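Memo to structure team: turn this sequence into structure tokens by end of day. - J.P.
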Amino acid sequence: MKIFGRTFKTLLFFTLLGGLLWSAGFGWFAFQASSIRPYDVNQKADAIVVLTGGEGRLDTGLNLFAAKRGLYLFITSVYEQISEDDIRARWKGATPLPICCIFLDREADTTAQNALMARQWVEHFAATSEDEEKITSIRLVTSNYHMPRALIDFKRILPDVTVYPHPIISPNARKRDKTYWLLLLQEYHKYLFRIAQQKLPPKWQEAAA
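Reply from structure team:
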């Protein structure tokens, strides 16, 4: 019985410790996601990369593109039936969008694949363009709660490209809304998994996450 008692206390200790670490980690993650701000909006990038999937992301990307904060606009995870004309028709701003150059990716389903498709696009651009037109910097647009994980993937998969984060607070995710905290909780677990995945062999690191 004494052995059982010691074992139970040990399990209880590590359970409580694990819960404490998890709670502290979630608190840190929530603070980081809530406090992160867009990189200097006066800083121009070669391209604006928008990760679709959250309300407000595309409109923010179009606004930045119209303001000429990037020469190119790359939108990833676009539905198959959506065309460039559909994207342009969405824009209602006073400043017209540049007549060139919007690029759409319809293949990516995950954040890691978003980064992979962006890398393929950047590499293709490098192979078909003059040196001065090559893409060496991007402004990455996604929701604030998604940005920490997105930065892990983009900085790993595009190590030679400077990434300027441009997180937004989605209209459907406010701090007083339980939806926001559910999104944070879900994203926190994905973030932890992504961190752990970096310890795996390279071929596993590009798996869906």
